[in-house]
Amino acid sequence: MPSVLGVNVSASSYASVVQQCTGWARNRESRTVLFVGMHGLMEAHDDPAFRAAMNIADLANPDGVPVVWALRSLGAPTASRVYGPDATIELLKVAADTGIPVGFYGADEATLTRLVDEVQRRFPQINIAFRMSPPFRTLTPEEDEEIVQEITNSGARWLFVGLGCPKQEKWVLAHKDRVQAVMLAVGAAFDFLAGTKPQAPRWMMHAGLEWAFRLLSEPRRLVGRYVRNIPRFVVLLGRQLLTHNQSDASKTQ
Fold it and tell me: Taking all residues of the chain, what is their mean pLDDT, rounded to a whole number?
């Protein structure tokens, strides 16, 4: 499994994600699934404890095109994007067909309601066993334990978590072996499915320009993040690729 800026990212696919998550659900396993983009990599770079936690996830998928490019350059030529919102749709299709109970944890109540309505419209047979919009503040240990118990009692086997990066990743990793479900930190999937935020056109996604669309859509929220992260990501990845290429060259001599 290649490491991108110190984070282990799998060269996975939508089919392999669905297959693994289905097997884990049927065995009632507690598992953690991440979708790693540039933002997540930079959060991990800046926080060694978070990076260490990410590296014990059961599955970390390449969510962003720059991450895919990095994986290919680091020796995984078949790497392809496994985009959290698209993976969510694929999993919901399977859940509706197989009866796997699902849950949603995150977003504000209005967004969550629109999300659930849209999922039920698209997949009328789906079993939504759990839904919760948690308080924005930090939960007390007692509140957290109550939520864990509610999820457990609901019987949800796939729990989609949409709290924003890095909060959602930290939440699923902290609840491994406490929540008996496959927990998926799916990024902006809640907003996109609910229709509360626009998605970039597919051509922009394929060209690695999704960040530009999102910046134009939410300049106040994202400009600081992108100004801070994009140049550093390019420099850090460039250094890693240089070291990688030098290592490969020395092995062939």
Answer: 94
Q: Is residue 240 part of a domain?
A: no
- Cα→Cα distances 34→31, 135, 139, 183, Å: 10, 22, 22, 9
**Measuring CA to CA, how many Å separate 152 from each of 21, 52, 92, 130, 187?**
17, 27, 20, 9, 23
How confident is the model over 182-230, as pLDDT tens digits? 999 998 899 999 999 999 999 998 888 888 998 999 999 999 999 999 9
Instruction: Let me know if residue 54 belongs to a domain.
Output: yes
Over the stretch 114-132, which tens digit does the pLDDT of each residue have?
A: 999 999 999 999 999 999 9
Residue 232 placed within a domain: no
Q: pLDDT tens digits for 90-123?
A: 999 999 999 999 999 999 999 999 999 999 999 9
Determine whether 131 is exposed, middle or buried from the number of CB atoms within 10 Å of its CB (0-12, 13-18, 19+). buried
Q: How far is Cα of residue 102 from the mean position of the Cα atoms in its chain? A: 16
Q: How far apart are CA 106 and CA 194, in angstroms?
A: 12
Nearest 5°: the CA angle 8, 27, 115 is: 70
Q: Which domain holds residue 155?
A: 3-197
Which phi and psi angles does 50 have, rounded to 5°? -65, -40
Query: Which pLDDT score, from 0 to 100, does residue 56 have?
Result: 94
Residue 225 lies in a domain: no
In the chain, the number of structural domains is: 1
